[in-house]
Task: inverse folding
């Protein structure tokens, strides 16, 4: 199971329900906004060992490997992760409530149970999509002056727009939003390592759309 975006969002993890092997990224939930790179594999011991052998070298497995001197950040990020994920969940709920109030369809709804940090907002038009992403970017701690523009990203059949003013490139636990520039123009918002900064980003996105 690929559990990216799902770690620490509920009381139980997939491995408690019989999942044999689970993997994820440390620049998402379990890295707590501190891990600069990396991933993890968990599950049945023999399968984790086989995965380690496949990813490194048979006979070495997980006994050694490159950590890039980041062990302190990896472990501190994991320690902080449950709290950081809670901040992201609060940000997603706030986003859902605010966007619902100004007339947009959201999923999950503000009062629905969540199993990951992703918030879907159906924005209906290309102009709304650009304004929403511009607002999210404006509220970022990094590159807030940048205006996101759609581009033909490899692997997609249409232009994609992305807003992500993150300390760690590609980090989805930091506030970000993205989506394909095609009907019904759905933006996928996630992250927010503090509720205060996440709330600011959402408010700036709403303000951008109402102007």
Result:
């Amino acid at each position: 199971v690929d559990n990216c975006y799902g770690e620490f969002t509920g009381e139980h993890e997939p491995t408690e329900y019989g999942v044999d092997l689970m993997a994820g990224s440390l620049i998402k939930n379990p890295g707590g906004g501190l891990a600069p790179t990396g991933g993890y594999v968990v599950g049945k011991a023999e399968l984790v060992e086989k995965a380690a052998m496949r990813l490194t070298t048979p006979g070495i497995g997980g006994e050694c490997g490159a950590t890039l001197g980041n062990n302190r950040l990896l472990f501190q990020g994991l320690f902080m992760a449950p709290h950081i994920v809670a901040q992201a969940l609060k940000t997603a709920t706030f986003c859902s409530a605010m966007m619902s109030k100004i007339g947009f369809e959201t999923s999950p709804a503000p009062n629905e149970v969540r199993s990951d940090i992703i918030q879907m907002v159906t924005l209906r038009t290309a102009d709304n999509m650009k304004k929403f992403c511009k607002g999210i970017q404006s509220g970022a701690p990094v590159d807030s002056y940048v205006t996101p523009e759609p581009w033909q990203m490899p692997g997609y059949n249409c232009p994609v727009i992305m807003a992500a003013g993150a300390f760690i490139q590609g980090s989805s636990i930091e506030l970000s939003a993205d989506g394909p520039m095609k009907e019904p123009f759905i933006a996928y918002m996630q992250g927010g390592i503090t509720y205060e900064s996440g709330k600011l980003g959402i408010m700036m996105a709403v303000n951008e759309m109402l102007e």
Notes: The chain has two domains: 14-75, 81-210.
